[in-house]
Amino acid sequence: MGGLIATSDGGFAITFYTGDSINHARIGKFSSDGDLVWLRQLIGGVLLRDLVSSPDGKITACGLGQAQNENSALFVQFDANGGLQWIREYKSNDLVGANSIAGLPDGGFIALGASLFRLSANGDLNWQRQVGSKFSDVVALENGEFAACGKHIFIDGAFVKFSSDGHPILSSSYSGINGIAANFTAIIKDAEKGFVLTTNSNTSSSDMIVSLDSVGNVNWARRSGMVNCTYQGLAKYNDIGYVLTGSGNTFVPIGRGLISKTDRKGRIGDCPSMQIPIEVTKDVNIGTIDAIIMELPAHQLVDASIAVHNWPIKPDTLCASGCAVGVEICNNKLDDDEDGLFDCLDPECNCTEAECSPKQYNIWHFGYKSGLNFDTDPPTQVDNGMTDCTGISATMCDVKGNLLFYTDGLVVYNRFHQPMPNGTFGVGDTANQSIIIPYPANANKYFIIVNYSGGQVYSSILDMTLSGGNGDIVAAHKNIQLDGISASLAAVKACSFNGYWLLTRSMAQTSQFHTFRVDQFGLWLFPIASNTGTSVASVQQIKIAPDGSRVACTYRSADNGHSFVSIYDFASNSTGFVSNPLVLGEYSNLNFASGVEFSPNGRFLYVTGYFPGQAKLIQFDLEAGDLQAIKNSKVNLATLPGQDFGYPQLAPNGKIYMTNSTIVDSINWVLGVIHHPNVAGVGSQYVHQDFDLSNFHPDGGAGLGLCNVISSYYLEPKIPAFSLSSADTICVLNTPINYQIENIPCDVDSISWRVENLSTQILPNIQNATIRYLAPGTGRLIATVHTHCGTSSDTLEILVVAPHNITLDLGPDRVVCDNGVFSFNAGSGFARYLWSDGTGGFHRNHPIPRKILGKCLGPVWKPSIRYHYGQHRPKFRARPWPRFAAAVLWDLNQLSASGQFSVLALVARGFP
């Protein structure tokens, strides 16, 4: 066997060769189920030792060509379907082929053995260098550099880091104590900058796994205690350990394949293994020189076939040691078993996410060394924070509420309130806004998004397994700038995929909302742009409703300098688009809208700012009706002459907290609190200066902002109400009537439908139900939403009336030439009647057919649906009407302003 590599489609590819007198190299592509997809063979003396796969499915292999006692370095590339892309073979003195190959950021390759080869993406040789060591494996680094491992002399291990042009940056030799072999066989990148390597054995000593830091210093080295074992393969395992493959001859003369799984400290099974001392000698130079090399004709390529059999594997457990290791003790903020993970980050704790009572944001650090702990209500003040900002900070806890880390947008601090080694961003100022979003594909990683006052938005990845389990920023993913110049940050859990939407807003002549997708593949750098058609000079704050259905934004126009507060629809359950802008308020001169926040149920919007000339806190009812109704629902909850409200923030206890000060950007020692934000008007109970922050830090306090939070963490079970157009009066039986619940929140698992006190047939289909009413009566239709956190219902009162086939008949036309009382009988069979003289609606009502008092000055009366002044002779007509009647009696002289009628029409309508 040669190399093994995972492919982009979830399968894998291998290289191997036949055992006849002339080696024929073969390369095969397998599916994820182990089925052979294609197999190719190179004719002649060829060995393929390693291979690499690119994201587009191409497979590139390297190895050794042998002809007439001369060796060459061989390279070959196939597309995803096994089609040959190119073959390159290079010959020079003292070549022993290429042992390992790695892909580079520019699409090219680095390969090595006793020489280094730099190839372009199509296999052309850029340069080649001979090196005074023999290398077995290479790994490419994000900055174009690469690191290699192998051996120098005898059994000394070699670790060398090279520049992008192939010159050594540092070189180290490694030898074990008491003759233990240390020459390396495989290398992978570990965590942020370090490396993990495996060794093979030239003596009776056993295998070894070694951890080096970024400059080659030994972090730890361990061996399993098995004799005559060799590790050749190495891979990460779910970011919590490593998988090693090799061979062992413990049970001589029977050779056995060996596979081991370790934790992040190299310990196998239940045993911490043996800690091995290694001597390190720094080399000044390894004597790299340029070499003359020439290209050889390509080998012949043919299709090949091979029989693939399932093979029963019996794991060998006799080599496992029976030692005991430390046990992780959950929720003590320590790494008790020394595996680099602690508390809920360690799988041994088996912490489940408490989605119904989220605790990831139970601790806030903000402002000037201020903080709150919401494990209690009211929250407890914490005094050990290190933040220094006037803007909006961000904090993250584990699912049990234990602090993991926090940031003020300038520095990231670990749970011990120490700056992380790579946690200083180096840009921005104290007015930054930050937000933290979990990495959906990895429970130990998080995205830290920072919006600086200049409008730049940067993303960084934090890995909690770095820095001994205390966390650190991944160097290769630090300060990655997102598209455009934007302001403010908000995030919500997505409904259409497993991940989150990150929302910001550009500042330009034609402003756009930028929605970034965060899923198992990471943070997508190219946003979804939603045009608003509004020029924006600055954005104060963006908030997303907990159910993801709406967005609120305060901003200043670039056209007229006016300040606005607007709401929008947000498609969090599908596309991530922002649409349907509605302006709730426009303010000129020194008046402006500042902060916004939704109530937990999403019904009420709270806005802070100057309206006009004084700092105010106002509330809008977003379910009041149309835009004008929402505007009319505005309630002023507080006025602060000479002061300023900061940015409001919904908290884990369901209350909204906000800062206030005498001047903008000053230190705030107290917080205002909205205690019941789901209640309309003054019932929401805003209390000014309700929480004192000066108890621990007399020189501390808050700025304008508090802590940013993913809004969906505070989502309450909710069902949209039945619309006003839902059928509630049923006049026909056994006819299908459709009901629908629209805009279903994404936390809904199912919807159930039931009818009380009525005979019905129901055909439910998630958010729809088709109902047939079978008999008259009164009852209720109830739709219930079921979520993992509870249920919520809405009820519709239903009236089903009996059908009828009765016809109204006012009798024949009649001519009246005298004053008097005339009787028009509409017939029996209806409960109510509505009468009209045709002058503009049915405004005369009565429960029974009734005589009409009138005085006739014209020649003809006839039944009709409307009246005329003139020669036309209209007719009476009657038909059912959907409302009940009350009374009927006319003096015909009073029905016209002039009192004169040439022709009068009467209309009657009846009701069951």
Structural notes for this entry:
- By secondary structure, the protein is mostly beta strands.
How does the SSE layout of this entry go?
Layout: E1 4-6, E2 12-17, E3 25-30, E4 36-42, E5 45-53, E6 59-67, E7 70-78, E8 84-91, E9 98-103, E10 109-113, E11 115-119, E12 125-130, E13 134-140, E14 146-151, E15 157-162, E16 168-176, E17 184-190, E18 194-199, E19 208-212, E20 218-223, E21 229-237, E22 241-248, E23 256-263, E24 274-275, E25 278-283, E26 289-290, E27 294-296, E28 301-303, E29 363-366, E30 370-373, E31 380-381, E32 393-397, E33 403-407, E34 411-414, E35 419-424, E36 433-438, E37 445-451, E38 457-463, E39 472-473, E40 480-481, E41 486-493, E42 500-506, E43 512-519, E44 522-523, E45 528-531, E46 536-544, E47 550-557, E48 563-570, E49 578-587, E50 592-598, E51 604-610, E52 615-621, H1 627-632, E53 635-640, E54 644-645, E55 649-650, E56 656-661, E57 670-674, E58 686-692, E59 707-708, E60 729-730, E61 737-740, E62 748-756, E63 760-765, E64 768-773, E65 777-787, E66 790-800, E67 820-823, E68 832-836, E69 844-846, E70 851-854, E71 860-861, E72 903-904, E73 907-911
Parallel strand pairs: 32-59, 60-66, 71-72
Antiparallel strand pairs: 1-2, 2-3, 3-4, 4-28, 5-6, 6-7, 7-8, 8-27, 9-10, 10-11, 11-12, 12-26, 13-14, 14-15, 15-16, 16-25, 17-18, 18-19, 19-20, 20-24, 21-22, 22-23, 29-30, 30-31, 32-33, 33-34, 34-35, 36-37, 37-38, 38-39, 38-40, 41-42, 42-43, 43-44, 43-45, 46-47, 47-48, 48-49, 50-51, 51-52, ...
Structure described in brief:
The chain has 912 residues and is an all-beta fold.
